[in-house]
Protein: Ras-related GTP-binding protein
Organism: Emiliania huxleyi
Amino acid sequence: MASARHDGPSTPRVLLMGARRAGKSSIQKVVFHKMSPHETLFLEPTNKLVKNDIANSSFVQFEVWDFPGHVDTTSAAVKPELTFGGCSALVWVIDAQDDHAEALARLQATIGTAYRINPSIVFEVLVHKVDSFSEDQRIECQRELQAHLSEELTAARLQHVKVNFHLTSIYDHSVFEAFSKVVQQLIPQLPTLESLLDILVASCRIEKAFLFDVVSKIYIATDSSLVDMQSYELCADMIDVVIDVSCIYGLGEGADDGTGSTASNCVITLNNGTALFLREMNRSLALVCILKESVMQQQGLLEYNCASFRKALGELFRLPNQPK
Ligand SMILES: Nc1nc2c(ncn2[C@@H]2O[C@H](COP(=O)(O)OP(=O)(O)OP(=O)(O)O)[C@@H](O)[C@H]2O)c(=O)[nH]1
């Protein structure tokens, strides 16, 4: 994903497509530009293709192309060879509160065109605006969409194409979680990263570990145990707390607190015997772990293993700005 690490010469590209008013621009603004969800009510419709460089850090670097909803994404107007040829992931946004038939037909046609040009594209569908749905309605809506798309793809002899579905809303963490999974697919070193996190988790009795991009709060990798939304939300919220406290009481850029370390770190103990543990890995990445409070008695072991993890990360990506 980062240009320094990527084999190809260009930055990976993510396409955002879907019907008018589906929520494409809102998703991009909320996830990557820190727009508050309510402000998206005032977003103007997108009338032409908007190319956005997401360069939060030396690590998270890719382009998002936001297509206007009214454009036919299979027509010559979108220059399919160019658009799909150099694309890594296609994110299709469906408004769950709207009629799905047309969106699904367009999605199937777009998958057909894109897959023919570039079979390595990763297809992701965001079943979006599910904030007003109950849990049962969400599951039912996704099931229905998946079944219809699968029928359409089979009819078009594209049943082998893998399409991932995510239930999302800009009003909670779900859209960040979904984008985390999209971004992870752009990282060639992901399996190594996950193995490193698995080793860390096993050696320190950590319950869950996330490696976060601090600016966007999407997670670059996690260990192989299942992700539950609540754990992700807790860890993402911890980043906000640490940033807020650092802004007020932090030492500032490049300052040394006398301990020889410039890395931010924080432990928060919750009232249910669980602790949250954060260690800055470099200027843009932070490791956030959930563990039993009792494990914190072995903090020395934890610190040692985190330092080893940071070192391995540095070797894997040759990260600049490594904290001392
Ligand atoms: N309830 C709800 N509304 C949302 C959500 N995401 C976006 N919206 C609203 O949907 C409307 C359309 O959002 P846009 O981001 O402009 O949609 P778009 O897909 O970029 O639309 P075009 O520019 O016409 O292609 C706005 O009023 C947003 O506030 C969501 O998760 N939940």
Notes: The CA atoms of residues 217 and 236 lie 6 Å apart. The longest strand covers residues 206-213.
